[in-house]
Predict the structure of TetR/AcrR family transcriptional regulator.
Amino acid sequence: MANLGPGRPRLTQRRRQGTTPRAEILDAAAELFTTKGYANTSTRAVADAVGIRQASLYHHFAAKDDILDALLAQTIAGPAELARRMAEEPDAAVTKLYALALFDVRQLRAARWNLGALYLLPELRTERFATFRRHRDDLREHYELLAADSAAAAGQPGDVAILPFRLVETVIGIRSDEESAAAETERLIPDAIVRIVGHPGDPAAVRTAAQALLIRLGDIVPESD
Amino acid sequence: MANLGPGRPRLTQRRRQGTTPRAEILDAAAELFTTKGYANTSTRAVADAVGIRQASLYHHFAAKDDILDALLAQTIAGPAELARRMAEEPDAAVTKLYALALFDVRQLRAARWNLGALYLLPELRTERFATFRRHRDDLREHYELLAADSAAAAGQPGDVAILPFRLVETVIGIRSDEESAAAETERLIPDAIVRIVGHPGDPAAVRTAAQALLIRLGDIVPESD
């Protein structure tokens, strides 16, 4: 999607996170959308924040909603890739569920901007964002299948399966209220998920197995869009 | 705060939820803020949706942020009042925690508009909403104290105490994604909280005690602002 061809000369020095103009635009937009609001931010303001002309921005993104779509995709690309790669692994469902929750909490915590706060925008319910919603629903389904299998393995009813995905996303609210989510959320949230699905063992043992699984799978580098 | 004195004649028949002009303005604004977005909604649009003149709206609210502030206050008034009234009761902390979560999930589910979706607005981090943020922090602290006491009674570490408040608020994301939160969330979420704080007994027993406590306390009618 990105057009990395020559644009106009920069108005100012690069001062944005990112190694390409496209990455700088995304970083600037992420800051403005999360701190000023999506509706309150124009593509002109994004271009100004990057230090490029608005016409140069349009080389990369035809409209503001294309920028939002690319940013939202970033928030789920990593855990979605992990879920795909875990499918072939022989580990117990509760181990995979822990690994997915741990990885996802970690990336939601570490992301430079709290982009998950944009999930509740009314704009996301429009047709324009149907593809993003479908991808996020796919990720949610991965969580729900792993949680249902974990509950079944523990002899528990599967109706709790809706909760782990939601508990992971509470990192977004914590960041919004407290600027950052404490490092301990990377243990507290996956541990709580183990308890919610009724797993009888010590969450610490599940954690150890999940960490080994993540190491075995290596770095999760999502396909770029 | 409300000025219920005579305004101008209505342009159209009342068609809003609410028995007073003020309540109708709040209902119309809640619909527009949650479906079109806060930044995308003018006070003029709110007045139009009620069928009153903009000048009449200003009898009740001096500015758009005053409407938002009143709506946000509604989202926490009930559980905050319940937390106050439970303070004197002799029940176990885990029973009070269950009662608070059950009551709060119920009101977040039942509210006509999903106002919690507005918690993540960047506007809420401004000085204008410091009072609302303080009141919500007070409610969060009630949850955290009850959760810490519940964990201590179960011989568990208290660091999980941050999670119950967050898990209750996942109703907001569920409503945003699925239009409504299923009735079973009124059982699933408080039951999950009982497991998270490490309570060794059956959540169903805690639920029975919590329901009895809620009945004993009678209807929770928050003070109107």
